[in-house]
Amino acid sequence: MKSPAAKKLFVMMVLEFFIWGAWLPLIWGYMGKDGLAFSETQITWVGTAFVIASFLGIFFSNQFADRNFAAEKFMAFSHLVGGLAILGMYWVKDFPTFFGLMLLHSILYVPTISVSNSIAFTHLKDAQKEFGLVRMGGTIGWMLAAWPLYFVLEGKAGAEAVAASRNIFLVSGIASLVLAVYSLGLPHTPPKPAAKGEGSFAWLRAVTFLKKPFILVLFIVTFIDSTIHNGYFLMAGGFLGSSTVGIEAKWIMPVMSIGQVAEILTMAMLGWFLSRMGWKTTMILGVLGHAARFAVFAFMPQNQTMIIAVQVLHGICYAFFFATLYIFIDAAFPKDVRSSAQGLFNLLVLGVGDLAAKLVFIPLQGHLTTDGVVNYKELFLWPTGMSLAAALLLLFAFWPPKDLDAPAEVSH
């Protein structure tokens, strides 16, 4: 990253995902019986805040960022108000106010994931080579927040743990306010008026692109892959801590974080892989990463070493599919709807996919549990099969046009 713009964008990504990483891994224990004592239903409602925000974002927030406000000012406003909202959660203990603040934070935060991508793509000279390096900052930011907080709070119990856990909202809120100020110094990214003859609704124009077969296929595959991706986080913790695998509870998060270290390395090399393999092959490998990981879970559950080692595939799963997806969207959609297009696909990644994972895998795991013992082999064969189906769909039905702004060696 030689250009000053790329360095600024890298720091933007660090702060963007630091905000999220500070609270997400630890909020669930804080809301539980040893903390706020919320019911399972109430905790589920808090967990749906991102889903709700991803739906609203495509119609409102991303529309504003595309057509009405400079993107950097949108970022500044969203992180200012969203930061104050999550700061308020430090003091709140009743469910209605707690949920209201989380919903407000989510509605303002979720669209900034799409908008930060759009800012990056606008100002990178070669997004296919540089975006992986810039987006790598997001993974680093997440780890800088989540890891220290986890190890500081690990081992604490009772009132001490509850008091300490509240600090996640202070850390996240302060980071959000810092990003609000920092955003004002980002490269200017003005709104893009509707093209002549086009309607004023950027989100509606983005949706019309689903009429293109290659976009529709990618949309369907993104839904499947997002469901599998979110399902991994629902099922992996219990599996790793089961008597079959036998990883101690305090080591489950570090083991799962191996994938994030691998993600950093894969992100750094993404441009190199894209230039040699092209859109299709890169995304197929990203989807197949899930199939390989879940197949190991299904057929080698007693091989703890292999179970731990296969976590490195997370880097391929995320970078090769999701990061490549964001680069492809930037190349495939017109400039005046790119934030809305990013939001449309993030609707799947952060919203519908997350909801589908909960609706599919939680009941499925319950159905495959007998006397407290989960039939993990059958459970993990489901996401393995879904991954293979998605990869085949890409292989046989994803045909982007040859004149798309793609790597030189795109294979069709």
From TrEMBL:
Occurrences of domain Major facilitator superfamily (MFS) profile (ranges): 1-402
Membrane topology according to the record: Multi-pass membrane protein
InterPro entries referenced in this protein's UniProt entry, alphabetically: MFS_dom, MFS_trans_sf, Nuc_H_symport
One cellular component (GO) term of this entry: plasma membrane
Transmembrane feature ranges: 9-31, 43-62, 74-92, 98-121, 133-153, 168-186, 214-239, 251-274, 306-329, 341-360, 380-399
Main location, first listed in the record: membrane
Domain of life of the organism encoding this protein: Bacteria
Subcellular location: Cell membrane
Keyword annotations from UniProtKB, A to Z: Cell membrane, Membrane, Transmembrane, Transmembrane helix, Transport
One term of GO molecular function: uridine transmembrane transporter activity
Name of the protein described by the UniProt record: Nucleoside transporter
